[in-house]
């Protein structure tokens, strides 16, 4: 289980909650856990109050974790994370005083003595980790953090013994490993996360990566983990549009060059993918992180030969990385109990009731399975022929194919927990009043726009486009630049997700290893259509998209020459096209079709009627508030209600 910062590291009683978080994963059979990154000193901390391990008081907190994990045959290593110039505070330090494009702070260039202090701090942190009962440490040497900043010319412009030639630039990494080894025993695991692919200009080339890997092995590293891409890289590495196991070939390339075990990482989210990597000899270990947020029992379900029961990580980043970067507690869109284990407790219901859940979208599915798990007798009504709601549209977006895994997961849970599923059923009011409790999870309907010509058959809703019920022309205007406007644009630009080869070409990844940083010139496929994406607001389009993924969607559209227009007023549609004003200047967009992606409105039939009749009724998800509709809120609300009823 790979390193993930949960945010629990910094809150009162957080270590009790962390202990339960790790305990559940250890109990379910994870072989080796690597903790979230912990700083070896103040200057290396990710933000001013970020967790550090620098004294004995902190050792006691960490023992809470190691004690519970070691009740199972699981090893646990502490990740030592020094963020260098990525630190979000004014005391940041680095090889050179070069500000990162993703940070508002300029780091101080370390003196030679300053560097020696950092090395001692790493060693002290490892010593304290040993004292706290950890089986080892992972030294974070990739992703553009402190050690990586010394290794790459991009960030190291020194001309002393710590800069200049490659031997000098890797000196820090090697000295840290040696110092850690000196302070710990030979059976204390040292994992080094090496950057196999920086994905930034002036990064390492493959020969340099090889050289470093061999030197690390000689310095006493036990395991090498694969780091892919600096945080400032503008190439996606873990988002849902990244093909599964997209970067394993780089770990494989290293395999014959070193004798220490290698860990493969990034977009490994099913047991089949993991097993294939090991069975084909591409790596010795596989490291999954977010999949353990989505399902703490990933390993035990795989071991039991029941992979279909796994709640699969869909790589959306919406409740994990987006939360981390917004300094909120980490959780998971498909599993809201992640990092909230002590708060989401599924107890048997005190009184088992008959409950109707109307609507089998994310909110309704989550509510129905948790209610059933607690012993209620649940009937789930869905007027469509399949469960999934908005996820059935999302899974059609190129690169979002993994969303179908969530629908599969709920399908298996509904069957396993004997939820009485009624598909193709428009439930009636008279049926609902026979239940002891009713949950309305009927979701949303697309917002319509009432303007001259908008009743024309060439003005269509995103639902018709994604369902394939209309044939869309080559010139398209999309009204609305929220998540769905962007999704529809991608759908109209290329019909399917990219395989690894196409992905490398599109994003400019050099697999040959010759180019510094592993970057090359992108080869952009010809867009299928000419698209204009419009919004009424002023400012940049896509400002409501996810913090860690919005840039990917914007880049996709920009690379495909999508025209992005803000400050637009819509006037009418006719044979000439879509008539608009941009900053009050008239323009006609000569388009074949207009696709309306103007958000949604609540759809909650029966609710008020049932309330008025005194029926015990609840409203959740988009049916309650379409404006904030998203699957994260929907699944969370559905689960929370089910735990209360
Ligand atoms: P949305 O995010 O609310 O965006 C609706 C868009 O329509 C906005 O650009 C809005 O911008 C415009 N609009 C609203 N009312 C309008 C009107 N009366 N006339 C013309 N334009 C209007 O809704 P969505 O895109 O349908 O997404 C729904 C939810 O799904 C969101 O909460 C989102 O979180 C989630 N989602 C996210 C992603 C993602 O992050 N990649 C993808 C899909 C869905 P103006 O008012 O400026 O015109
Ligand atoms: Fe995976 Fe999304 Fe959950 Fe993060 S929030 S763990 S990316 S499913």
As for the number of domains, it is: 3
The top-level CATH class of the largest domain is: Alpha Beta
CA-CA gap between termini: 34 Å
What structural category characterises the helix and strand content?
alpha/beta
- The CATH superfamily of the largest domain appears as Aldolase class I
Largest sheet: 7 strands, parallel
List bound small molecules.
NADP nicotinamide-adenine-dinucleotide phosphate, iron/sulfur cluster
Strand order of the largest sheet: 1-2-5-6-7-8-9
Radius of gyration over alpha carbons? 26 Å
Shape-level CATH architecture of the largest domain: Alpha-Beta Barrel
| Poorly predicted segments | none
Query: Would you report the number of β strands?
Result: 24
Q: Can you describe what's shown?
A:
This protein has a seven-stranded parallel β-sheet with strand order 1-2-5-6-7-8-9. Strands 12-11-10-13-24 form a five-stranded parallel β-sheet. It folds into three domains: 8-325, Aldolase class I (TIM Barrel), CATH 3.20.20.70; 354-445 and 601-644, Rossmann fold (3-Layer(aba) Sandwich); 448-598, FAD/NAD(P)-binding domain, CATH 3.50.50. Helix 20 links the parallel strand 17 (530-534) and strand 18. Helix content is 32%, strand content 17%. The two termini are 34 Å apart. The protein contains 22 helices and 24 strands. The chain is an alpha/beta fold and 645 residues long. The model has no long low-confidence stretch (mean pLDDT 96). The chain binds NADP nicotinamide-adenine-dinucleotide phosphate and iron/sulfur cluster.
């Amino acid at each position: 289980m790979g390193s993930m910062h949960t945010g629990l590291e910094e809150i009162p009683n957080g270590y009790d909650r962390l202990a339960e978080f790790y305990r559940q994963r250890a109990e379910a059979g994870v072989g080796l856990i690597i903790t979230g990154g912990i700083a070896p000193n103040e200057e290396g901390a990710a933000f001013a109050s970020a967790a550090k391990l620098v004294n004995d008081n902190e050792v006691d907190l960490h023992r809470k974790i190691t004690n519970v994990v070691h009740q199972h045959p699981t090893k646990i290593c502490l990740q030592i994370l020094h963020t260098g110039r990525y630190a979000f505070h004014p005391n940041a330090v680095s090889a050179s005083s070069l500000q990162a494009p993703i940070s508002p702070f300029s780091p101080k260039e370390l003196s030679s003595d300053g560097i020696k202090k950092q090395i001692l701090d790493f060693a002290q942190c490892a010593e304290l980790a040993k004292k706290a009962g950890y089986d080892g440490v992972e030294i974070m040497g990739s992703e553009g953090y402190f050690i990586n900043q010394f290794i790459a010319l991009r960030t190291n412009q020194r001309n002393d013994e710590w800069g200049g030639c490659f031997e000098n630039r890797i000196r820090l990494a090697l000295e840290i490993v040696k110092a850690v080894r000196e302070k710990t025993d030979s059976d204390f695991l040292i994992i080094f996360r090496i950057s196999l692919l920086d994905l930034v200009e002036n990064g390492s080339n493959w020969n340099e990566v090889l050289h470093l890997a061999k030197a690390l092995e000689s310095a006493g590293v036990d395991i090498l983990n694969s780091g892919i891409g600096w945080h400032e890289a503008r190439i996606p590495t873990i988002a849902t549009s990244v093909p599964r196991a997209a970067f394993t070939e780089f770990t494989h390339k290293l395999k014959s060059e070193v004798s220490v075990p290698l860990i493969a990482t990034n977009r490994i989210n099913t047991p089949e993918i993991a097993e294939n990597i090991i069975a084909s000899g591409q790596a010795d270990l596989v490291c999954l992180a977010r999949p353990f947020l989505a399902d703490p029992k990933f390993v035990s379900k795989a071991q039991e030969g029941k992979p279909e029961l796994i709640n699969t990580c869909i790589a959306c980043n919406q409740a994990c990385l987006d939360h981390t970067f917004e300094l909120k507690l980490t959780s998971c869109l498909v599993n809201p109990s992640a990092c909230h284990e002590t708060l989401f407790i599924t107890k048997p219901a005190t009184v088992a009731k008959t409950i109707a859940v109307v609507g089998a979208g994310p909110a309704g599915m989550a509510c129905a399975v948790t209610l059933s798990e607690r012993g209620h007798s649940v009937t789930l009504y869905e007027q469509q022929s399949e469960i999934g709601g908005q996820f059935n549209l999302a899974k059609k977006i190129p690169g979002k194919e993994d969303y179908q895994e969530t629908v599969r997961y709920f399908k298996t849970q509904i069957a396993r927990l004997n939820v009485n599923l009624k598909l193709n059923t428009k439930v009636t009011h008279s049926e609902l009043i026979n239940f002891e409790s009713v949950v309305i999870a009927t979701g949303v309907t697309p917002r319509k726009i009432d303007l001259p010509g908008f009743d024309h058959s060439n003005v269509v809703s995103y639902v018709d486009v994604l369902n394939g019920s209309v044939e869309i022309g080559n010139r398209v205007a999309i009204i609305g630049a929220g998540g769905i406007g962007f999704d529809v644009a991608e759908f109209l630009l290329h019909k399917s997700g990219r395989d690894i080869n196409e992905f490398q070409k599109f994003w400019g990844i050099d697999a040959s290893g010759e180019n510094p940083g592993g970057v090359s010139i992108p080869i952009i496929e010809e867009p299928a259509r000419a698209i204009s994406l419009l919004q009424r607001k002023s400012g940049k389009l896509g400002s409501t998209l996810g913090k860690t993924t919005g840039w990917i969607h914007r880049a996709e559209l920009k690379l495909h020459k999508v025209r992005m227009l803000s400050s637009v007023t819509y006037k009418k549609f006719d044979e000439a096209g879509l008539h608009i004003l941009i900053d009050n200047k008239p323009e006609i967009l000569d388009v074949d079709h207009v696709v309306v992606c103007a958000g949604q409105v609540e759809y909650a039939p029966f609710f008020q009627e049932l309330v008025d009749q005194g029926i015990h009724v609840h409203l959740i998800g988009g049916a309650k508030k379409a404006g904030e509709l998203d699957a994260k809120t929907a699944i969370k609300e559905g689960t929370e209600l089910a735990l209360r009823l």
